[in-house]
Amino acid sequence: MSHSLRLSWSTVEARAAQVPVQAEKLSNFDLILQCQSGHRPDTAAFAELMRRYQSHVERVLYHLAPDWQDRADLAQEVWIRVYRNIKRLNEPGKFRGWLSRIATNLFYDELRKRKRNASPLSLDAPLSVDDGEIDWEIASDSPGPDEDLTTREFYDQLREAIADLPEVFRTTIVLREIQGMAYEEIAEITGVSLGTVKSRIARARLRLQSQLQNYLDGV
User: Fold this and answer.
1) Structural domains of the chain in order of their starting residue, each with its CATH number
2) Could you tell me the pTM of the whole model?
3) I want to staple 133 with a disulfide (CB 3.0 to 4.6 A). Which of 39, 62, 126, 218 is the partner?
4) Could you report the per-residue pLDDT of 15-45, keeping only the tens digit for each?
């Protein structure tokens, strides 16, 4: 009788194991394990990860590049990199920070690429639009064209200065100053001590100040 019960229970367990758990019912941790378990990430689990973290990716990219029109394309590239590299994530509990670093590094890769390929822009030439051409000097209450241009130039210089930082400094300063994370959270994401985080942020700020000083002196 007991043998029969054991046999029946084993059969039930085997059948239950064959019934897949719906991805939306899994925790974030289990979704990542599901994506790491096979030769390729599980389609349903990966799609659910994208659904849960898409807004986070968009928020990171918006803070880094609010004026870029192709952020949706960058977000797609972020997920392509995640798909290709998720098996390398050793600590699934730190997925959000790892995802932030991928998005941040992608942005600075793209920034350096655009910096190399950028063609000079003449402010003397008229601006081409769909229905003709207009001059650059357009009447506006505030800010004026010079002030607006100076602001945009400053942020361009700042982005390029951040891009030139070593990766450990760049990641830390972006997580702190752009994404607004607490020191403790940054320490957990990057896997270093709280003191190291504070030191890296301080050194990154000094390097940025040094690189931007010549620009600021000339404004």
Assistant:
1) 21-115 (1.10.1740.10), 145-219 (1.10.10.10)
2) 0.60
3) 126
4) 434 445 688 889 999 999 999 998 899 999 9
